[in-house]
Amino acid sequence: MNHQHALVGPDGLDALIASGDPLWVRLKGLGHPRLISAVLQKLGVPEIFHAPLMETPQRTRVDSMRDAVLVVMHRLSFADSPDHLISEQVGLLLMPNLLLTIEESPEPHSFPQLTQWLDRLEPPPGREDLDDILHFLIDEMLDELFPMLEQLAELLDGLEESALRDPKPKLLNRAYMARASLRKIRSLVWPLRHQILILLRQNQRILGPDARSGFEDMAQHVGLIFENAELLRHQCDAVSDAYMASASNRMNQVMKTLTIVASIFAPLTFIAGIYGMNFKVMPELDLPLGYYFALTFMALIAGLQTYFLWRRGWFQDWTATRR
Q1: What DSSP assignment string belongs to 271-299?
Q2: Is the pLDDT confidence value at 93 over 90?
Q3: Which domain, by its residues, includes 113?
Q4: DSSP string of 90-128?
Q5: Beta strands in the chain (DSSP E)
Q6: Which of 53, 125, 150, 292 has its CA 20 to 30 A from that of 137?
Q7: Do 41 and 157 have their domain in common?
Q8: Looking at residue 322, what is its pLDDT?
Q9: Which of 205, 225, 246 is at the close of a domain?
Q10: Are 199 and 215 in contact (CB under 8 A)?
Q11: What's the mean per-residue pLDDT of the chain?
Q12: How many domains does the structure of the chain reveal?
């Protein structure tokens, strides 16, 4: 397994199978089911594994039957931002002298790190190394999740700070989308831990000691990913709480402003209402300077009330944007 061959059909597999060398067959894309089915039959893959490898979407699973181990995972990535998650199904099948991977979305370079390492490996890997390559493939897909969780953490930190500075509805919407991404990551990754432990208890003969140790480490990695996703989910709650607190604070500020205006104009309205009554005998109406006296008196009351409210701290804005 020290050479790479690009094939477009199942006919090119005859010479590789006849050589007896261990094979790692990579199928990119699920757009041609008949072609993939022909390749699977050529490789001697049991019919029971055809549907899990070819049909989408499949749940995350680890199945073991005789001398075969099937793993169905999802390669996760972000689209234009960390709150837009993309899931691509990847099926892996380990059989004696064969490792098969089927990727839902064709990519120019699949598993680049492992491929480069195998090209430089001397001596080239043999039949007994296929189980190690299987757990390396799974481990590489799991390792891709840690940088994604870090991006989500940075996104949530920014959203929480923005919610405290200038809360807007779109911030809450992005927090909900990040929560949905975390929920999907948890649902696609967490089943691996339980099923890997079951696989280890079965003492599958096709797995060597190194591969078994690698699967044990993977179970721990899955637990760590789940814990980090759970912590980030609580951080989503913190963003929602910060948004609601800031929005409530702003609403209180609006109500306080309206209360100040009403408090100042209430006595002025009372004075204007008294002198607006249609009584014939109102001594102040005959004063030459009565109009100016009333305006001065109203301005004095408004000034005194404004000063009193200012001394009590009512004019302080607690929703001002922090710099």
Answers
A1: HHHHTTS--S--GGGG-TTHHHHHHHHHH
A2: yes
A3: 10-246
A4: EEEEEETTEEEEEESS--SSSSHHHHHHHHH-SSPP-GG
A5: 23-28, 61-65, 68-78, 85-95, 98-103
A6: 150
A7: yes
A8: 47
A9: 246
A10: yes
A11: 83
A12: 2
